[in-house]
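During the no-cost extension, the postdoctoral fellow (Dr. R.K.) reprocessed legacy sequence entries with the updated structure-token encoder. One reprocessed record is reproduced below for audit purposes.
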Amino acid sequence: MKLARKKEIIRSGTTVEQMVRAIADMIITGALRPGERLDEISLANRFEVSRTPVREALGQLCAIGLVGREPNKSAVVTTVTQQHLASMFEAMAELEGICARLSAERMTVDERRLLEAEHKASARLVHRGAEEDYEAHNTEFHTRLYRGAHSDHITDLAMQTRARLAPFRRAQFRLAGRLARSYDEHDGIVTAILRADGAAASQAAYAHVSIVSDASTVFARGGND
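Re-encoded structure tokens follow.
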């Protein structure tokens, strides 16, 4: 895959978000290799934008940890070690477990009903194999868990950690059968929340993210071998 295929890669969102997503996905899949230079002018030409949004996109990729740069030098693709990735997913699993437990304890009746309704509606996306639409649903599903905890600080921590893991979490949906398994895992979380069973919700959410970690790292490793 080359950057010239931007029309196929970019689908939605703002220009900067599109570039961040496209470049991140290429790094994860190995189309861009560790140590490869990311020249601002070349990227601006290929994405048909000015250098300003390119700099912003590279800044976000640096914050995620996929790109590094030194003063007065081009940005380069970094090496994300399996150890570092495992550490981030471990933190994510803990945070999601906390959010699910608090959601089971604190969600309002309306929040529970909406969570259940949107979860059930996502079954149609699984049946259609609508990977991108399900990915958008998945993001919203987890956001509801974070907000359902009714703890601003914990929500912020969860959102920040998710942002760093977003390219890796997207990778899971390229694996055969992953949509259906993700739906089943969500079902366990939703069922526990509806029963106000904090312990079960926490365990289900923790297990879900652990499985996502395995699926994502397997795909990323395969793309970088």
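Strands lie at 37-38, 67-68, 75-77. Residues 82-224 form a domain with the Four Helix Bundle (Hemerythrin (Met), subunit A) fold (CATH 1.20.120.530). The remaining legacy entries will be reprocessed before the final report is submitted.
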